[in-house]
């Protein structure tokens, strides 16, 4: 049974690829607009090494930006969310920054940090930080007072209260912030690579586009998609680990 | 020496520009091993008093001595607490919830595991040690909270309307089992409720509080023999005490 499914799927994929190839080969669509599967494969074979290195560069930038944006976002979110005054003072400010298109800041970042990976990482951090911090703030603010009273009654230190009670309680909100934030990091890094850079997938896409190497552009796009999917799989995995607990939250009311 | 000694306690809250007096001139004492219940109309400051006893909030004037020492901050090794809401951590099993206070204090894993398993057995939940709070009924969750309150082996347990959210049958059963736990452990229990029946059924002494600002208007010793039976609730003597407390509260309210 299983094997039959696989065979069917392979047949469908083969047919689609063949039709796609035919559309380009018989000139229905221009080769500049639509790359044929064989063009993409050729690009992969010819410049696979270059693309692989670019892929690594971009993944490192994305990874670094996600790491910094999540750490900063969560720490700032917990601290701000825990204080009435801080939250009232900064939350409107944070959400209005979140609402402006941050890309307008990129020329400045480029001037300050150059066109190397650092400006991409910093822009990625900027993109991811706000949704993560804002969601964490909301998550912490939603924690009922009784948990804080309980923490004090058992003599928990403030570090223990935040690390062992407040943060885990806010986690579902934090994860939904991470889902949005990490997605924005991927976008931010790839887009800024396309604007001005020395390497990375965004750079290759942009570079080959100017040369009308559509096969290369498509291959780059596929790699960029792969990254977005990989990051999303990571978040979904995290989310799944928390599913049990979200269920019980509903049970508790 | 009484385990709780409260004298001339007062508590004011600032409500905008006005000052709200929650407690005025509260004095009483509780002997070691007693089961003492505080009753009073809602909003009379019962919970405020309990939080002062626990060292969670400071009194405006007067003093509280716990085991002869002035209290100014929570003393988890001397005082265990059980709240109206069990406030369990949803991602921890029943056993891990009971262990949590000891875990924070760095108590050795094997030691805390054996102690807390014994506590779960005491509250009748041995079989549910590995269940998560959402898998337990309301009454069971509150049993876990009671076991957790006992985890640091305090001599005094403060309970703030612990059974108020339960249905009547569960509530009666929990009261009965609490007496059992109390007798087995020899702890002192200071209990808050607005159910007069519950107060009389459980206690050695009932303290009656007036509406705000709260004062203790009467201290009533309950002399029914122990172990207590549920039938006693329907007796004439029980009804008399109940009426007396009811009148005290009603008159104070005018």
What does this structure look like?
The complex is a heterodimer of chains A (253) and B (254). By secondary structure, chain A is mainly α. Chain A has a single domain (39-252), classed as Orthogonal Bundle (MetI-like fold), CATH 1.10.3720. Helices cover 85% and strands 0% of the residues of chain A. Chain A is elongated, with a radius of gyration of 23 Å. The mean pLDDT of chain A is 89. In chain B, the strands form 2 sheets. Chain B has a 6-stranded mixed sheet, with helices on both faces. A 4-stranded antiparallel sheet of chain B has the order 2-1-4-5, covered by helices on one side. In chain B, helix 6 crosses helix 7 (236-253). The chains are: A mainly alpha (253), B alpha/beta (254). The interface between A and B is medium-sized, with 21 and 24 residues.
SSE blueprint and pairings:
The complex is a heterodimer of chains A (253) and B (254).
Chain A: H1 2-25, H2 37-82, H3 84-99, H4 106-113, H5 117-141, H6 145-153, H7 158-195, H8 201-210, H9 214-241, H10 243-252
Helix pairs in contact in A: 2-3, 2-5, 2-7, 2-8, 2-9, 3-5, 4-5, 5-7, 7-8, 7-9, 8-9
Chain B: E1 4-15, E2 18-30, E3 35-39, H1 46-53, E4 61-66, E5 69-70, E6 79-82, H2 94-104, H3 109-122, H4 138-150, E7 156-160, H5 168-185, E8 188-192, H6 196-202, E9 205-209, E10 216-221, H7 236-253
Helix pairs in contact in B: 2-3, 2-4, 3-4, 6-7
Question: What's the average pLDDT of chain A?
Answer: 89
β-strand amount of chain B: 15-25%
Proportion of strand residues of chain A: under 5%
What fold name stands as the CATH topology of chain A? MetI-like fold
Please give the count of helices of chain B: 7
Using DSSP, what is the number of strands of chain A?
A: 0
Spatially, the strands of the biggest sheet of chain B line up as 6-7-8-3-9-10
The global form of chain B is: globular
Query: What's the architecture of chain A, going by CATH?
Result: Orthogonal Bundle
Instruction: Report helical residue fraction of chain A.
Output: over 70%
Helix-strand topology string of chain B: EEEHEEEHHHEHEHEEH
Radius of gyration of chain A: 23 Å
Instruction: Return the structural class of chain B.
Output: alpha/beta
Distance between the termini of chain A: 44 Å
